[in-house]
Structure formats: structure tokens, C-alpha cells
Amino acid sequence: MDDKPAALPAAPASASRAGRWLLVLALGAALAAGAYFAVEQATALQARIAGLSAEIDALRAGQQQSGSGLEASRAAQQALAREQAAAAEQMAALSARAAALEARVNAIPRADASAFEALALAEARALIGLAEQRLLLARDAAGATAALTLARARLPASQQALAVALGQDLAQLAVFHDADLPGMAAELASLAAASAGLPARPASAPVAAPTPAPAPGTGWQGLVARLWQDLRGLVEIRTLDDHPDPLLDPAGAFRARERVRLALEATRLAVLARDVAARDAALAAAADGLHAAYDTEAPDVAAVLKRLSSLGAVELNPQVPALTAPAV
Length: 328
What we know:
Layout: H1 13-111, H2 113-138, H3 141-154, H4 160-175, H5 181-194, H6 223-234, H7 250-272, H8 276-293, H9 299-312
Helix pairs in contact: 1-2, 2-3, 3-4, 5-7, 7-8, 8-9
């Protein structure tokens, strides 16, 4: 027997060619993909390089602008520094002046301690004199009280006697009450304006109707009667009365009301002038007019009469307290 191995059958030629073509296509696809990837990477790198170049240009421009802004800010800081230095110099000058003035003020009492006491005493006495003027010339108790209070506050500690006198004067002014002239005048003006609306005095008696005269006869027998009737028509008989009946004499009632109003106005003027005699005379005339022309039984008229009586009792010139503290 033959010991050599049997030979394998030969591969077909078409199968070997297809394998080689597939290998070539695979290598071409790989090379194409690598080339495409390389192109994409190159494009991205170029774009990145362009972006970096633009950023570098922007940074350079920003550095140039920041350099000009930095110079402007440095100039502004220098100007502010100069202004601050000038303000510091002015503040130092003002502080030195204030210190000098304070030193002068502090040196004055040590030089003459009695000068300030004399000045304060003179000011207090001037205020006391002002208070006396306000009381004597204007009867201004409030102004005098304010002046005396300030004078007592300005007194030196050594003037104890004058301080006691000022306290007594202030106590006197605290209990002093002057007449309220403006208030009284306003009240009298309102009473004068309202006097026309007060109820009038009623008629004293009913008026009787006149008796008609008999008719004169005709002919010569009635000649005398006719003459007497004509003569009676020429004569009017009136009652002489100072207080006319308002129902029978409207003109007289109007004059009576006007007399009351004028009397109240005269009372107001007398009160403002502090004229006691004129005030009393005008009040008496007003009361007489109210009794004559108005119904004194009416509540409104009675209230007006009562108020006029109380106004007549008001002291128009109360005694102003005399100050005990010397002004000089």
C-alpha cells in the first residue's frame, strides 16, 4: 500500500477573487471614513482657531478701552483727592477758629467773673421794666408774666431777694383777671342785631270803635251840625305818650326799636373805651327801651334784660397789680 496522503481538491478561482474584492472594499471604506473624520476634525480646528483669534482681538480692543477708562478714572481720583485735601484744609481752619473762640470765651470768666453776673442782672432788670410797661400802658398781664418769668430765669444765684420779689409779682399776676372787652363787645353787637326780632309789647287795651256821629239834617236846621262835622274833620286828636302802642303806631314802634339798638351799640362802644359812666347810661337807655317797646314777660326779652344787668356789674377798669421787684 501507498502511505502518502491523498491530495486536497483545488479551490475554485472565482471564490478567491470575491474575497480579495471584499477586502479591498472594506479597506476603502475604512480609509474613506478616516478621511472624512480627519476633514471634520480639521474644520472644527479651523473654526476653533478662528474663534480664538476673534477672542484675542476682542481682548486686545478691551485692553485698549480699559486703558483709556483707567486713565479717566485715575484723573477723577486725582481730582477727588485734591478736593478732599482742600476740604480737609478748610475743616482744619474752621476747627482752629472754633478752638480759638472757645479759648477766648473760656478765658473771659476767669479774667472777670463779675462781668457776667452784672450783665445778667442788667438784663433781668430790663425785663422787669418791660413788664411794668406792658401792665401800665396795655394792661397786658400775659406779656408781663412772660417777661417776669424770663427775668427770674436770668437772675444770678446771688440775687435771692430779687428772685423772691419776682415770685410774689408772678403770684399777683396769676390771680389778676382783666375785663374781657372784646367778648363783651361782640355779645352786645349780637344783642343789638337780634333786638328787632324780640316780641313786641302787647296792646294795653283794646281800641274801641268810634261812635258814629248822627247824620246832619237838611235845610237850614242842619246847617250848624254840618259845620261842626266839617270842623271835626279838620282836627285830629292824638295821645301824647312817650311809649306808643306798637299795634296802633307802627312808625313809633320802629323808632322805639331803633332806640334800643342804638343804645346797645353805644354800650358796646363805651365798653371798648372802658368808659363806665357812658356804659351805665347806655345800658339804662337800652333797658328803658326794652320795657317800653318789648314784651318783658317773654323769655327772650327777660333773658336780654338779665344779661344787660350782669354786664352793668362788670368792672371795666380793675386795679392792675403793682410790681414789687425794682426795675432799676
